[in-house]
Amino acid sequence: MDALTFLIDGFQTALQPHNLFFAFLGVLIGTAVGVLPGIGPMSGVALLIPVTASMTSGLDPAQAATSSIILLAGVYYGAMYGGSTTSILLNTPGESSSVVTTLDGYQMAKQGRAGAALSMAAIGSFVAGLVSLIALVLLAEPLSNVALKFGPAEYFSLMLLGLAAVSGLAGNSMTKAWMMTVFGLLLSTIGLDNVSGVARFTYNISFLYGGLEFLTVAVGLFALGEVFKAILHKEKNDGEIAKIGRILPSKAEAKESVGPIARGSLLGFFVGVLPGAGATLASFFSYIMEKKLSKTPEKFGKGTIAGVAAPESANNAASGGAMIPLLTLGIPGSGTTAILMGALIMYNVQPGPLLFDEHPDVAWGLIASMFIGNVMLLILNMPLVKIFAKIIETPTKYLLPLIVAISVFGVYAVQVTIFDVFLLIGFGLLGYLLAQHDFPLAPLVLGLVLGPMIENNMRRALTASNGDFMVFFEKPISLVLLIIAFLWIVVPFIMKLKGKSIIVNEDM
Amino acid sequence: MSKTFDRIAAITFLAVGALFMVESLRISKSAYGSAVGPNVFPFLLGLILVLLSIKLLFETARYVHSESEKQPLQYKKFFIILLAAVFYAALLETVGYVITTFVFLVIGFQTMEKGGLWKSVLFAACFSLGVYGLYVKLLQGTLPSWPIWLQ
Q1: What is the structure's pLDDT at A441?
Q2: 3-state DSSP assignment of residue A200
């Protein structure tokens, strides 16, 4: 089969010593970048482009392109690995796709099971990376055709389905969860409107023209909120954390995680293929799906391993899936892939339908190095788990101010405005107040992510259909997604009314 | 579940929702061909938030008034660190990253637990200089470095 021969050629390229070194460097930097809250893979990749250019200046252009892309791609999925570390240990999402991991991962860390959580995240990410690569090799062409069929109406319905999934993120009160979601959606309207260019709720503050940056809000709500809570409530962690004896997950936990990892990988891959719907959405979706399919949904949010394995697999699979539109169609699905595309173009390699014909060595070399990179990440991360798990044993005296300093650094490094640092502190206070009184934070973040996508796609779809609202029901894919969303909300309701015992939230 | 907090929160969100609704009426309705302009979405969302807040208010009336154990909160530490953080943010660009981070960390460490001044100073210095060196020198990122009068 053509693909296999090319893949073997790709492996030959990727296994060259200097490419192995680049891959290793990439995943190392990527893990570090992912661990730091605020600085995400986007900034990491962007910062490294000049560095890689100078490092590969001695090689000929095609080889330089391959080596640089291997390094940059390594940073990309390395960051997916690293992002979960601080989510689990410090309730600080290292990057947007790791927000969901905080829900169960941090609880597990508080129970002394940080080692199991970290290693399960690593294993899940590895398996997901493999799955997404195999799917990439086999399914690239048919999947890109499907991705092309997704127009604005389909995206809108998909995002609505994502909203319907809020029911899975709620705690005790659905009202509060929906309030948080709507509040998040409202916050996402701040800034310049994408479709018409009108400034909304900016009051001439120029910093608000781009809207509220997601990472500022997420790091503020989760990380600083947790820090403020720890300071105010005199958290006596020092005595309680059980020894991190267990690095590997127990047999029972491993068995429990097989399903979530498999489902998370597949779901994450398909969500990642869609340009625009990236790793963040994939992680939310897979968490919600796991909660729905689980026999013990009440354990979610209190430290169940499936709640860590599923989103972590999903976000790694999504980063593999995001390569498909980039390589086959030349459409970057997210900020990071856009920067990767920029790097490719810089080396005179045009991603798109002709990439596999004109520069097969670059494309297949990249794919092969992703296999190798995944193995390297697993080998790198497993011993590091023990070191990372020791981080939470740092006395709170040093830990809490350090978290604040790291968060400020992360936010300032990306946004380069003091306004965002103030916003960070403000959201930290808000996050503390809300979390303390049972207002769930995850729906707020979900609303913030989904808001622009919902609104823009709805308006684009309506513009294309000349104001006809039926377009959402006439297009088949959109109709299917809307029906699923409707059922998702309505079925638990009906079953509860029928008296069946479903774990649904009490005061509805 | 704190009855008072939920009540206050519900009223606050009601105000926020109403504010968004009122403000969105001032946004232009023009939509360049689309039936839905930039004002519709915030208006609808504000409306939904108002309705949900009213629902929450009704729900708080049904709360069982639970005697929550009043945990003594460490207000003093919290406010010192909060104030330090605000000053950190305000002075970040004028005084430079290294100095402000160093001062903030020392204050933070000492507020959390007095004592071990030298260790605090050492850790704070290592962190500030380390991050600055790694990010600005090695990776050529952007961080405000030193105040004008020190350069």
Answers
A1: 83
A2: strand
User: If you search the block for the tokens 């689980």, which residue do you land on?
Assistant: A294
* C-alpha–C-alpha distance, residues A7 and A367, integer Å: 8
> Residue B22 in 3-state DSSP?
helix
List CB contacts (< 8 A) between B27 and chain A.
198, 200
| Inter-chain residue contact A195 with B38, CB threshold 8 Å | yes
What are the φ/ψ torsions at residue A493 (nearest 5 degrees)? -55, -50
| pLDDT value at A207 more than 50 | yes
Residue B28 in this model has a pLDDT that exceeds 80: no
- pLDDT score at A238: 43
CB contact under 8 A, B86 and A459: no
Q: What is the C-alpha separation between A308 and A285, in angstroms, rounded?
A: 13
What is the nearest CA distance from A106 to chain B, expressed in angstroms? 22
Tens digits of residue pLDDT in A433-486? 988 888 888 888 888 888 888 888 888 888 888 777 788 888 888 888 888 888
Nearest CB partner across the interface for B34, out of A418, A434, A459: A459
What is the overall mean pLDDT for chain A? 81
Question: Which residues of chain A does B66 touch, with a Cβ-Cβ cutoff of 8 Å?
Answer: none
Whether A189 and B34 lie within 8 Å, measured CB to CB: no
**pLDDT tens profile A325-357:** 888 878 777 777 888 888 888 888 888 777 877
Question: Dmax over Cα atoms in chain A, in whole Å?
Answer: 72
Do the chains contact at B16 and A459, CB–CB below 8 Å? Answer: no
Is A185 close to B6, i.e. CB distance below 8 A? no
Which chain B residues are within 8 Å of A413, Cβ to Cβ? Answer: 135, 141-143
Contact A231 B74 (CB under 8 A): yes
Does the beta-carbon distance from A437 to B1 stay under 8 Å?
Answer: yes
Q: How confident is the model at residue A253 (pLDDT cuts 50, 70, 90)?
A: confident
What single letter denotes the amino acid at residue A435? A
Question: Please, what is the end-to-end C-alpha distance for chain A in angstroms?
Answer: 56
- Best B22, B111, B139 member to test A by mutation, with max A CBs in 10 Å, is B139
**B95: which 2 tokens?**
């005084």
Do B143 and A401 count as a contact with CB atoms less than 8 A apart? no
Residues of chain A found within 8 Å of residue B142, distances taken between Cβ atoms: 413, 416
pTM: 0.79
Amino acid at A323: M
A186: phi then psi, degrees, rounded to nearest 5: -65, -45
Q: DSSP string of B96-148?
A: -HHHHHHHHHHHHHHHHS---HHHHHHHHHHHHHHHHIIIIIIS------S-G
Residues of B in contact with A423 (CB under 8 A): none
Rounded to 5°, angle at Cα A214 from A205 and A37: 120
At residue A505, does pLDDT exceed 60?
A: no
d(CA A68, CA A447): 36
* Cα–Cα distance, A477 to B48 (Å, whole number): 28
* Contact yes or no for B82 and A413 at CB 8 A: no
> What average pLDDT does the segment A22-51 reach?
79
Of A50, A185, A467, the CB nearest to B45: A185
Residue A99 has pLDDT above 50, yes or no: yes
* Sheet strands (E) in A171-319: 191-192, 199-200
Please classify residue A433 by burial: count the beta carbons closer than 10 Å to its beta carbon, then call 0-12 exposed, 13-18 middle and 19+ buried. middle
Separation between Cα atoms, residue A40 and residue B42, nearest integer Å: 29
Residue-wise pLDDT for A150-175, tens only, equals 888 888 888 888 777 676 666 667 78
